[in-house]
Amino acid sequence: MSFSPLVDRLLETLRVLPGVGPKTAQRMALHLLERDREGGHRLAEVMARALEEVGYCRRCRTLTEEEVCELCRSARRDERLLCVVESPADMLAIEDAGGYQGQYFVLHGHLSPLDGIGPEDIGLDQLASRLDEGGIEEVILATNPTVEGEATAHYIAAQLEGSEVRLSRLAYGVPMGGELEYVDGGTLSRAFNGRLPFSTE
Amino acid sequence: MSFSPLVDRLLETLRVLPGVGPKTAQRMALHLLERDREGGHRLAEVMARALEEVGYCRRCRTLTEEEVCELCRSARRDERLLCVVESPADMLAIEDAGGYQGQYFVLHGHLSPLDGIGPEDIGLDQLASRLDEGGIEEVILATNPTVEGEATAHYIAAQLEGSEVRLSRLAYGVPMGGELEYVDGGTLSRAFNGRLPFSTE
């Protein structure tokens, strides 16, 4: 059995949301229709507006409805540091961790020649011209520690060879609070290769 | 840190959906903005339309954008049977189980005097006039097996006293496929009190 055509269509369309299957879609649709029509109207409206208006920051390519995002406009960020991340969510995670005071550049993905995603698709031409403007002393490559993320980092590093910009990347090693027993082999050998002098400070 | 005001507003508004917390809202918003703007637009549009147009069936009060729902219009349903349920989801569960061929009446809730929900709020006046029309021989009370559901069933039964309509309710007992060991005491004693002659058919 099914509901009316329009309710069925709502159930089906709700499944564009990640992690929403048939049961969750039904719960969501009935919740909105039975208990919170006002909230649903607000959601539909805000969603349409955000999808219409939110684009990429002209400077760092993060999501924003403004021409240049707040972080890029902020006078309190160190303009000599540029952190390259794959997605706005990564940028948010780094900001939430605190400590980093520089600026960002968001790739919105990684190089993936098989999927037809080349350097221009992830804004590397824009990154190059940003570096050409001068003022940036260090680029921190914070792509994901995956094969594709590493490949992208290496590609960017190769592009920057010969320039005066210092290149760095996030440290790889055992995560804090974990137990060595459960750390995977790849991470463990990275942590061994990258071992540091013990400091008692 | 936060995203731009409009993205933040989307994150916040997505939480009107049941079961969606801050992390899920972020994943949904970024998915729509980064990967599926078209799907998002479709969702916003269908959601707005459904919330605008879907109302209650004039006959059975289920959700439908039509005046009278498909099930009520169907000539293949037994008009002598009327099953009273608390929500459209309950109606769907019964339909999916198969077997029942009668019609429905949806209360959209249960009596709850403390919350100011009285007989009229759950359509009992409408139920009464539907029964007055005649033609219905049996009313099956399929409210939830909770205190409120039971109270609502009793209230409806009291209202129908003296009428010629036969009243029944769903059988209570141990659920199929379960293990007795894990069935709660209340259900077990119900199953004992309602025990039936063993049939070898």
Write out key terms for the chains shown.
alpha/beta, globular, two-stranded antiparallel ribbon, 2 domains, 201 residues, homodimer, Helicase, Ruva Protein, domain 3
Protein model, in words:
- The structure is a homodimer of 201-residue chains.
- Chain A has 201 residues and is of the alpha/beta class.
- The first copy, chain A, has two domains: 5-39, Helicase, Ruva Protein, domain 3 (Orthogonal Bundle), CATH 1.10.8; 63-169, 3-Layer(aba) Sandwich (Dna Topoisomerase Vi A Subunit, Chain: A, domain 2), CATH 3.40.1360.
- Helices cover 43% and strands 13% of the residues of chain A.
- The first copy, chain A, is built from eight helices and six strands; from the N terminus they run αααββαβαβαβαβα.
- Chain A has helices spanning 5-14, 22-35, 37-53, 70-73, 88-97, 124-132, 147-160, 185-193, and strands at residues 55-56, 63-64, 78-85, 102-106, 138-142, 166-169.
- In chain A, the strands form two sheets. In chain A, strands 4-3-5-6 form a four-stranded parallel β-sheet. Chain A has a two-stranded antiparallel ribbon with strand order 1-2.
- In chain A, a hairpin with a 6-residue loop joins β1 (55-56) and β2.
- The model of chain A has no long low-confidence stretch (mean pLDDT 91).
- Chains A and B meet through α1, α2, α3, β2 and α5 of A and α1, α2, α3, β2 and α5 of B.
How many domains of chain A? The number is 2
Identify the CATH architecture of the largest domain in chain A: 3-Layer(aba) Sandwich
pLDDT < 50 stretches of chain A: none
Oligomer: homodimer
Cα-to-Cα separation, first versus last residue of chain A = 68 Å
Q: Percent of residues of chain A in helical segments?
A: 40-55%
**Count of helical stretches of chain A:** 8
Radius of gyration of chain A: 22 Å
- Choose one word for the global shape of chain A: globular
CATH topology of the largest domain in chain A: Dna Topoisomerase Vi A Subunit, Chain: A, domain 2
Mean pLDDT of chain A: 91
Q: In terms of structural class, how would the helical and strand content of chain A be classed?
A: alpha/beta
Number of strands of chain A: 6
The fraction of residues in strands of chain A falls at 5-15%
What is the CATH class of the largest domain in chain A?
Answer: Alpha Beta
Give the largest interface pair and sizes.
A-B, 56 and 56 residues
SSE pattern of chain A, N- to C-terminal = HHHEEHEHEHEHEH
Largest sheet of chain A: 4 strands, parallel
Strand order of the largest sheet of chain A: 4-3-5-6
GO molecular function (chains A, B): DNA binding; zinc ion binding
InterPro entries (chains A, B): DNA_Rcmb_RecR, Rcmb_RecR, Rcmb_RecR_Znf, TOPRIM_dom, TOPRIM_RecR
Keywords (chains A, B): DNA damage, DNA recombination, DNA repair, Metal-binding, Zinc, Zinc-finger
Protein name (chains A, B): Recombination protein RecR
